[in-house]
Design a protein that fits this description.
131 residues, 86% helix, mainly alpha, single chain
């Protein structure tokens, strides 16, 4: 029984990593395009790109990664949104500190903030979304 659960968890982590990687690419590319080509401030671009990637991540997490009941209720959706907003706040704080206070390029800072938020997302979604 333990081996089956371990195998399921490993598959789930791999799926989460793949979806997270694609969501990261979406986030990273939109951040760059919005900041460099459209001229939006990096923190605003970061919010927009984060939201786009969260929508993608939500759809893929529900449909492919986590064992979510078919009838996802309003309560579960609100929990997901709240967890995502907390992730966005974590992302923005890290970006601000690294870029404005530590003078690290925003694209490098995004790599670090994404890693932190990815760990936060897996743990909180596993606890609150999958159940």
């Amino acid at each position: 029984m333990s081996k089956i659960l371990d195998n399921i968890l490993i598959k789930q982590i791999l799926k989460f990593g793949l979806v997270g990687g694609l969501a990261f690419l979406i986030d990273y590319v939109f951040l760059y395009i919005l900041t460099e080509f459209i001229g939006i401030h990096y923190l605003i671009s970061s919010i927009i790109s984060f939201i786009i990637s969260v929508i993608f991540n939500y759809i893929m997490s529900i449909k492919w990664v986590f064992d979510v009941k078919k009838q996802q209720g309003l309560k579960e959706f609100i929990v997901f949104i709240v967890l995502s907003v907390i992730g966005l706040i974590i992302n923005e704080i890290i970006m601000y500190v690294m870029v404005d206070l530590m003078n690290i390029h925003y694209m490098i800072s995004k790599l670090f903030s994404t890693g932190v938020v990815m760990v936060y997302n897996f743990i909180t979604r596993k606890i609150f979304v999958e159940r």
